[in-house]
Amino acid sequence: MHFFRCRDAATPSPNTATDLVGQTLGAYVLERLLGQGGFAWAFVGREPDGTPVAIKVLKPRYAGDSQFESRFRNESETAAKLEHPNIIRIRSVAKTGEHVYFAMDLCADSLGARIAREGPLAEADVLRLAHDIAAALEFAHRQGVIHRDLKPDNVLIRSDGAAVLTDFGIARAVSGYIASTGVNMTIGTPHYLSPEQAQGRPLDQRVDFYALGVTLYKAATGELPFSSNDWFELARMHVEDPPPSLRRKRPELSKRFERVVMKCLAKHADDRYANAAELRADLDEVEEKRRPPMNLGAAPMGTSQPEALEDQSTGRQLWLVIAGVGIGLVLLVGLVVKLRR
């Protein structure tokens, strides 16, 4: 990771994201718009050697604010130091002309896009993704970094199916900016806000477990536990209403998996997981209970399992008959010898 600043007078200030498509920012050519959030646009771009990358460009209204820009760059550089297989790799943080951006690895998919395409995922798939996210959180929390805005769109999926967590630090940059300027801005995504975020209380790493609970709920059922078009009503639901049962929506989900999600969604932080290691242990237990029991005997090649079991039963019966005949012969010989005496 490196930080550099270059001036490019030829790059005009864009009014929309499409104005940047086809332009060059530093070493990167922006090919197409990938998506956008509240504070930045995301593009697919390429490095000079042709390597595809994702590039997040701070929207002009925020890039033009020196305090916001500074916090954005600082948090991006902090996130770039989080080197872990399940955390997105930030390649560079830069400013070209008026554009502030960072480049990161490009992933094949996102959890949000996959849910939109496929609807609810199988429990086994959700568990695998949950393991990866929990591993990322465990590493980040040990470095003192809290995500604060975990949601399906921030869970990227590599071509091998592994989950990669992105956008570390952006919510922290926003919260720091609000604290220093008093500007009224929304921190985080309302449907994934923890009760303590909704109430403006102090936060710690357990805020990420609540957002993960909402994310897993969405992945497993295709629905959010709480939904409202009114922000204040939604905040009240996060604080007061119990989340609906997952198994009422999808009875095939296991009770153990539901318990993990519900523990993440506990209203009080003390009732959630204290750390990601505890969460991973419970996820391991859910996975262990899902595995079918091992069979003591394996079927020979070309033989189905029922046939193999039948053969084993027949073999046991044959040995019992042989043993019975053998015992009978021994007794008969003993009787003959006794009579001759």
Quick recap of the structure?
The protein has 341 residues and is of the alpha+beta class. Helix content is 45%, strand content 15%.
Quick one: how many beta strands? 10
Average per-residue pLDDT, rounded, comes to 83
Radius of gyration: 29 Å
Number of domains as seen in the coordinates: 2
User: What overall form do the CA principal axes indicate?
Assistant: globular
Strand order, sheet with most strands: 1-6-7-5-4-3-2
What does the secondary structure layout of this molecule look like, with pairings?
Blueprint: E1 3-6, E2 24-25, E3 28-36, E4 40-46, E5 52-58, H1 60-63, H2 66-80, E6 90-96, E7 99-105, E8 109-110, H3 111-118, H4 123-142, E9 155-157, E10 163-165, H5 170-181, H6 195-198, H7 206-221, H8 231-240, H9 246-249, H10 255-264, H11 276-290, H12 305-340
Parallel strand pairs: 1-6
Antiparallel strand pairs: 2-3, 3-4, 4-5, 5-7, 6-7, 8-9, 9-10
Helix pairs in contact: 2-5, 4-7, 4-11, 7-10
What does this structure look like?
There is one protein chain. The protein has helices spanning 60-63, 66-80, 111-118, 123-142, 170-181, 195-198, 206-221, 231-240, 246-249, 255-264, 276-290, 305-340, and strands at residues 3-6, 24-25, 28-36, 40-46, 52-58, 90-96, 99-105, 109-110, 155-157, 163-165. It is globular and about 100 Å long. The longest helix has 36 residues, at 305-340. With 341 residues, it is an alpha+beta fold. It starts with a strand and ends with a helix. It has twelve helices and ten strands. The protein has two domains: 3-105, Phosphorylase Kinase, domain 1 (2-Layer Sandwich), CATH 3.30.200; 109-290, Transferase(Phosphotransferase), domain 1, CATH 1.10.510. 45% of the residues lie in helices and 15% in strands. Strands 1-6-7-5-4-3-2 form a seven-stranded mixed β-sheet. A three-stranded antiparallel β-sheet has the order 8-9-10. The model is unreliable at 1-12 and 299-311 (pLDDT under 50).
